[in-house]
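INTERNAL AUDIT FORM
Audit reference: QA-55
Scope: verify that the stored structure record matches its stored sequence.
Auditor: D.O.
Record contents follow.
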Amino acid sequence: EAVPHNKPNFSTMNAVRTWIRSPHGPTTVHFWGPVANWGFVLAAMADMKKPPDMISGKMTGVMCVYSALFMRFAWMIQPRNYLLFSCHFANECAQLYQLSRWGGIVKS
């Protein structure tokens, strides 16, 4: 049955309230940690426009290892932190692309 527009949808409000109070809601480090880590992904994506000779192979390699370790961590903890996993998966992809660009410069 459709809810009239002039009445509040209590099921939606309860769902939001439940999410806010959940172990991965916006009042926990399990939410804000991954949100802050998206900065790494954004930075790597912005660096894709820069010339490959500006890429630090060592730092990019470290970021690959860092994201691989934290992907495993996010998968192994209970309850699983899918937000953290997705952030580090995206960063791993971006950093591997950057590493391949840097590798092309080193070979030539």
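Auditor finding: record pair retrieved intact. The chain is about 70% helix and 0% strand.
Action required: none
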